[in-house]
Each structure stands twice: as structure tokens, then as C-alpha cells.
Q: What sequence folds into this?
């Protein structure tokens, strides 16, 4: 397989995952905006969406006001915002197009149809009434992409690289959302009894990582609690967006790659060591080390892994 | 030359009855409700859009990927008609390859005075770097798309030979696939020669010209300029259907005179490159130093005989518009036979007598740029306005050697689905030819159709469409 092909499959998956993550952040912002109490500055909810996707600064350079129209224009349709849904879908498709010969017809049609239909949408028509439906559509298209990938793609090196892209992006997204909101997840936050602000933030974090309902199952008797939420999203492997789950998947894929090629590269050892570390960690230890420090360190290691992978397999 | 008003209708004869190859189709068309074709056209467009069968239009700001309009009514060619056409094409492509071998070696045809030496030696498309080098099997152009037009029952003319990197073959294949999905019943009532063997034939052709044909497996690649190229879909399609890698220049490198591709593991040596980039961009060390698309050192590896490039560099000389007028001489010189297919009489505007004639008859004739393609920068006298003609006269007089001119041919017309129903529209035909251990011509080709009433410009860049082309079996 060409190094460039490996790279395109990796990025195709990464950008698709990113498009879906940005969409979920918008859903959370939208929900907050419509249920906010009278008199409360509803711009706060959009700030959550913008800061978690890392584009708050770019937004404020372009717009003075925080409102649905501007945020939707910037986070969904903007050609300048490199993490807009549009930009992610376009890059995902360009990468897929560059390796059309290495992906299945089903996968290509899923990606291509999403892009075609997305482009047919006139941004002016996405008003407050239509936004939820539109975001749900993007979300479903992203699920279709992943479904087509899991169900039709041959389990060879191409598949392994696409999984790496998917889970490196997901781990990065989870860690960044947690890190942006880390102060609401400190154990002290629990003391502020019934702090409405915290409750809102916790629910938003869980929703942004599609964990609102599954949290109830993982902690049947517990109300929302900072300690549990942090544990759920960092260490619980059964949560599909937790850091531990992402690195479980990455470490397994690393083993698959080693077997496929018959040799071990440094990136594979790095994946195994990050995964092991997460599986041995306790939440108390992370708090002792400092949640913010831990997350910052993790984002760095995740990046380092991605770089090493590119280097080991000649990504162009 | 026939009058434009009396063009040859391929389906209907002078009395309005169907010609034999179209008999069944004409009846079928008559029986269908009026909105039937409109619905089928929409279905076809959906298929093309979802599969991403698109091409890029240069100079268009938005929507760089467009669909080529697809006409759902097939164009039909009978078995005897096809036999004559393919014999003519076979003769022509063999002669053109012999011609290239000659002008890059002993230049007998120049010594014999059959072509003015300057026309070759001063031609931009002539690559001195190729002199003295003999490619495998002496084949230069392995893939050729011969553009033909029909003007009467038995008269076909060759418009262009396309010996560089002809495109459109993916449309030939996808049009057929689409027709089989839309109208399975028509394939039960017609014995249509298949075209699906093309990728396999292409692969055989490429393997047969590998530097070491004895090797058990040949590593073949398709070299593309990338996803923004107008024919990118086709590049991916061909690589996919041959089961070979689709590479860009940056995926390849030259080491110790051999070409390798960068894989996720060890570099892999490449034997044959089917390149879909122009000569100038192949190798920045030998040709255009600014090229970002090429592979430094590729040409030296080629000359060292370690890799085969298809088509060979320098094949542009065989389809140069200034050389075109001499192709009948070329055929006679190398085959000793009369040409089977006609050449369109051509005036070379660099010759004062020819230029004078052209300037006097601009309203009647077609003028083309010598190095132009895609229907850009040309004048079709009979359909141009007075202002367009005056404007073109100025451009032509300023730089006459940049132009050739030909009589306006009354292109044949085929039944085509239009807003008002079914109407005749002018067509051309590009069959695809492969030259390696043998000459393989796929029965069929790409029929391009001018969708506007009376228009003679079939180029997709100018709004033309395509049709499936059926060669009937005996």
C-alpha cells in the first residue's frame, strides 16, 4: 500500500469523526440556547460549542455577537473555519476521492452522497426551526459512513489505518472537551450543592460525548457527580468515547498492524504503553496529579502517537 | 462536402423509415410514453452523481466537478460498418507508431521528402530527448482515441488521432453499465458487443511492453496529476478496474536508475507507468523544471530501459494538427497501402495561399488552433455571428501559423432525447485502441453529442453530452 493511501485513509476517518463531533457540540449549544432561563445570557451555551471545538478566538475575530445565525454559519458552513462541518466533510471526501481505488463502493457512495446533499443545502434556510433536523441528518450520515466502513471494508492495512484515524481523533476530541471544562469536573465541584451552573455543564459534557444516557447505566444509583463523570469519560472502557476505550481500540489495531506486516514499529509500542497506563490508572491518582495536567499530557501523547505512526508508515 | 442542411440521419433514411440496425430500437421508442425518457434520464443522472462520475471544467469558479449530460438513446453501428472502421483504425495506428519510430531514428520520411523536415524538427511536440531511443516492441502510442465523424452512409473522416493521453474510456464503460441498468430489455433484443474487457486488455497491453516481459508479475501504476484534474475520475476508475495502484508524482522516486513507489513498508519497484500527465510535467530534471507533478530522474530511468512509460514521451508529434494533413502520406509511406479512412482536407494557415483562401471563406469553414483542444479557441464559420467572425479574423491575421482550417463537415445525427421529445443531434465517435503485443480495438467507443439544435460542437467542456455506442454482432 502506498504511504499516501495510508495517510488518506487515516485522514478520511479523522475528518469524518471530527465532523460528527462538531455537530454534537452544536446540538449541545442549541439545546442550551433554547432552554436557557429568561434574562440569562444565552450566548454562554454557544461559548461552550465554540471553545470545545477550539475555534472561539477565530469566531470572535469575525463576529461581535454570539447568536444562532452566526455560530451556525461559522461552525457549519464556513470555508474559513478549518473545523467547520463543511470543511471536515470536504476534506474527508477529498481524502476518500484520492484513494477511491482502496475503498468500497458502499463507503464511497456514503461519503459522496453526504457531500453532494450537504452542498445542496442553502445556509440561509437553516433557521432555528430547521437546525436540529439538519444536525441530526449530519449525525446520521456520519453513522452511515462508519457503518459502511465497518461492514464492507476488507480487514487489511487500509482498514487498520482508518481505525487509527478514527480513534486518534475521538480521543483528542474527548480529552479537549474535558480539558476545556476541567474546572467543573474537579472533586470540589461536588460540594457546591445543586450548583445549577455545574449541572448544566455536566449534562452538556455528557451530551457532547453522547454519554448522557449511558452514564445512567454505568452508574445506576448515582446522580451526576464530577468524580463519576470524569471516570466515565476517561477510564471506563465500556464508554465508546472514553480515552481508555479509544486506546483499547488503538492498541488492538496496533497488534493487528504488527501481525499484518510481520514487524513492530515504535508507534505500536507507544500505543500499547498509553493503553496500559490508562488501564492501570485510578481516578484518585489523576486528581492527585491534577486533572488539567493529566489531560494536557494526554493530548500531547496522543499527538505524539499520531506523528510516530505517520513516520513509521511513510504517510505522505 | 455535404450541405449542413442535408446531414446524414443515422436512424432514419430519406423516406423517414428506420435503417436496418435501428429497426428494433425505433419501434421500441415509438411505443414508450412521452415522459418515459425524461424519467430515465433523471435516473441516469442520479447514478452518475452518486458514483462521482464527474469531470472538472477549467475556468469555472464554482462547482468544479460537473456531470457530463448522458443521453439515454444508444447510437448503433452495424457489424459490417464496424469492420471497415476498425480496419481503418488498425491501419492508421500502426502507421503512426512506425512514423514515430522513424522520426526518432533514421528519419527516412524526411529524407524521402514526404514531409518538410522543419515541420518535424521545429515542432514543439517533437522531443529531441527521444532520438535514438527504442521503446519496447517499438510502440510509442499504446493508447489512442481516434476521433471520427460520419458524413454519409459510407464516408467516415478522422478528425484527430489523440496519441497523447486520450480520455473518455471510463464513460464508454460507465455509459454501458448505466444502459444495462436502465434498459435491460434492450439488451435482450439486440446483440451488443461487450466493452467490459477494456481494463483487462489495457492491462495485457501494458504488461506486454514491460522492460522485462518475462517477469512473472509486473508492477503497473496509473500516474495522475491528482484529484483536481479534469479526468481524475477516469484515472481512479482505470487503476481500480485493472487492480493497480493509482499514484501521484510524489508517490514515486528514482533510485539508481530505477523507479520505486513509496509504500507503508519497503519501496516497491515499478515496471510500467500508464501516465495521465503531459510530457512537460513528467520529469522536472529533463522537462519543465517547475513541475510539481513529476518524478525527478524518471526520464533517465526510462532511457536506461528500467521502466516503460505509456504513452511514450514525444507522441504528441503524431497528433499535432500541423502533421495531421500528412497522415495519408504517412500511411502510404509505412504500409504501402491507400488509407482506408478519410482525412479531412486541411489548410495550413502558415502557408500564404492557404491563409488567403481561409480568410476569404471564414463564413464557410472551421478554424482551429494548432495546439488547441477541448473545443476552445476555435471558429465554426457557418454557425458564428458576423461579429465573432470579424473578431476571429483579427486574431488569425495576427498569428496565422497558429491555425489550421478545414471545411465544415455535415456531421451525422442520431436520435437524442431533448425537451420536445426525440430529435436528431450531431455526433462524433471516439473508439479506443490499445497497441502492445497486438492491436486491440474495443467495439464501440465514446459517442459525443451536441445537445443544442444545429450545433456541431460536441466537446463536454462546451456543453456536449455522451451516448452509449453499440456495435451489433452479426
A:
Amino acid at each position: 500500500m502506498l504511504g499516501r493511501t495510508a495517510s488518506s485513509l487515516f485522514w478520511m476517518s479523522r475528518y469524518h469523526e471530527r465532523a460528527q463531533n462538531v455537530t454534537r457540540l452544536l446540538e449541545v449549544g442549541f439545546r442550551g440556547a433554547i432552554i436557557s432561563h429568561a434574562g440569562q445570557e444565552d450566548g454562554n451555551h454557544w461559548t461552550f460549542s465554540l471553545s470545545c471545538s477550539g475555534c472561539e478566538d477565530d469566531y470572535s475575530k469575525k463576529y461581535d455577537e454570539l447568536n444562532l445565525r452566526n455560530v451556525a454559519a461559522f461552525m457549519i458552513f464556513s470555508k474559513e473555519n478549518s473545523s467547520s462541518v463543511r470543511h471536515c466533510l470536504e476534506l474527508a471526501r477529498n481524502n476518500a476521492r484520492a484513494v477511491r481505488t482502496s475503498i468500497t463502493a458502499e463507503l464511497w457512495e456514503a461519503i459522496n452522497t453526504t457531500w453532494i446533499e450537504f452542498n445542496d443545502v442553502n445556509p440561509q434556510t437553516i433557521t432555528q426551526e430547521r437546525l436540529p433536523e439538519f444536525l441530526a441528518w449530519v449525525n446520521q450520515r456520519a453513522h452511515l459512513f462508519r457503518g459502511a466502513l465497518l461492514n464492507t471494508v476488507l480487514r487489511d492495512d487500509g482498514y487498520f489505518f482508518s481505525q487509527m484515524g478514527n480513534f486518534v481523533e475521538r480521543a483528542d476530541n474527548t480529552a479537549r472537551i474535558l480539558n476545556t471544562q476541567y474546572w467543573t469536573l474537579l472533586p470540589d465541584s461536588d460540594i457546591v450543592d445543586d450548583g445549577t451552573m455545574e449541572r448544566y455543564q455536566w449534562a452538556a459534557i455528557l451530551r457532547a460525548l453522547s454519554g448522557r444516557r449511558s452514564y445512567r447505566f454505568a452508574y445506576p444509583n448515582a446522580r451526576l457527580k464530577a468524580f463519576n463523570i470524569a471516570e466515565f469519560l476517561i477510564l471506563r472502557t465500556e464508554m465508546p468515547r472514553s480515552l481508555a476505550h479509544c486506546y483499547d481500540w488503538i492498541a488492538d489495531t496496533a497488534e493487528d498492524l504488527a501481525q499484518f506486516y510481520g514487524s513492530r514499529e515504535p508507534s505500536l509500542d507507544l500505543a500499547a504503553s498509553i493503553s496500559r497506563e490508562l488501564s492501570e490508572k485510578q481516578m484518585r491518582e489523576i486528581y492527585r496529579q491534577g486533572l488539567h495536567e493529566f489531560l494536557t499530557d494526554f493530548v500531547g501523547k496522543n499527538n505524539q502517537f499520531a506523528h510516530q505512526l505517520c513516520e513509521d508508515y511513510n504517510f505522505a | 462536402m455535404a450541405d449542413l442542411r442535408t446531414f446524414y440521419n443515422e436512424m432514419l433514411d430519406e423516406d423517414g423509415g428506420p435503417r436496418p440496425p435501428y429497426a428494433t430500437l425505433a419501434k421500441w421508442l415509438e411505443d414508450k410514453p412521452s415522459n418515459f425518457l425524461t424519467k430515465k434520464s433523471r435516473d441516469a443522472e442520479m447514478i452518475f452523481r452518486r458514483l462521482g462520475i464527474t469531470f472538472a471544467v477549467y475556468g469555472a469558479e464554482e462547482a468544479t466537478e460537473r456531470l457530463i449530460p448522458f443521453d439515454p438513446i444508444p447510437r448503433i453501428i452495424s457489424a459490417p460498418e464496424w469492420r471497415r472502421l476498425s480496419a481503418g483504425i488498425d491501419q492508421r495506428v500502426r502507421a503512426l507508431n512506425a512514423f514515430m519510430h522513424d522520426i526518432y531514428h533514421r528519419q527516412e520520411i524526411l529524407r524521402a521528402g514526404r514531409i518538410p523536415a522543419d515541420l518535424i524538427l521545429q515542432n514543439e511536440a517533437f522531443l529531441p530527448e527521444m532520438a535514438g531511443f527504442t521503446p519496447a516492441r517499438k510502440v510509442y502510442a499504446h493508447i489512442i482515441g481516434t476521433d471520427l465523424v460520419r458524413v454519409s452512409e459510407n464516408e467516415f473522416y478522422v478528425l484527430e488521432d489523440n496519441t497523447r493521453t486520450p480520455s473518455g474510456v471510463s464513460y464508454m464503460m460507465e455509459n454501458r453499465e448505466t444502459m444495462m441498468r436502465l434498459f435491460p430489455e434492450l439488451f435482450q433484443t439486440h446483440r451488443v458487443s461487450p466493452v467490459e474487457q477494456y481494463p483487462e486488455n489495457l492491462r495485457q497491453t501494458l504488461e506486454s511492453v514491460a522492460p522485462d516481459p518475462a517477469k512473472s508479475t509486473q508492477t503497473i501504476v496509473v500516474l495522475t496529476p491528482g484529484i483536481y484534474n479534469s479526468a481524475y475520475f477516469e484515472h481512479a476508475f482505470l487503476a481500480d478496474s485493472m487492480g493497480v495502484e493509482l499514484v501521484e508524482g510524489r508517490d514515486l522516486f528514482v533510485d539508481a536508475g530505477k523507479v520505486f513507489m513509496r509504500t507503508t513498508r519497503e519501496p516497491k519497484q515499478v515496471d510500467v507507468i500508464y501516465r495521465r500527465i503531459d510530457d512537460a510535467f513528467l520529469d522536472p530534471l529533463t522537462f519543465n523544471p517547475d513541475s510539481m507533478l513529476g518524478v525527478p530522474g524518471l526520464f533517465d530511468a526510462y532511457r536506461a530501459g528500467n521502466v516503460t512509460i505509456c504513452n511514450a514521451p514525444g507522441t504528441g508529434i503524431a497528433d499535432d494538427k500541423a502533421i495531421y494533413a500528412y497522415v495519408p502520406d504517412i500511411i502510404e509511406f509505412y504500409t504501402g497501402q491507400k488509407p482506408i479512412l478519410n482525412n479531412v482536407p486541411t489548410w495550413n494557415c502558415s502557408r500564404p495561399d492557404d491563409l488567403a483562401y481561409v480568410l476569404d471563406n471564414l463564413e464557410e469553414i472551421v478554424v482551429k488552433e494548432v495546439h488547441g483542444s477541448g473545443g476552445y479557441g476555435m471558429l465554426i464559420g457557418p454557425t458564428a455571428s458576423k461579429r465573432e467572425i470579424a473578431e476571429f479574423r483579427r486574431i488569425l491575421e495576427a498569428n496565422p501559423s497558429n491555425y489550421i482550417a478545414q471545411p465544415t463537415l455535415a456531421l451525422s445525427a442520431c436520435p437524442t432525447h431533448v425537451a420536445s421529445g426525440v430529435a436528431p443531434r450531431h455526433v462524433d465517435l471516439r473508439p479506443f485502441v490499445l497497441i502492445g503485443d497486438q492491436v486491440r480495438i474495443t467495439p464501440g467507443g465514446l459517442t459525443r453529442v451536441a445537445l443544442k439544435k444545429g450545433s456541431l460542437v460536441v466537446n463536454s467542456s462546451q456543453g456536449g453530452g455522451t451516448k452509449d455506442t453499440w456495435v451489433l454482432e452479426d
Q: What stands out?
A: The first strand of chain B starts at residue 55 and ends at 56. The longest helix of chain B spans residues 79-103. Chain B touches chain A at residues 49-52, 226-227, 232, 236, 239-240, 245-248, 250-251, 261-265 (CB under 8 Å). Residues 402 and 412 of chain B are 29 Å apart (CA to CA).
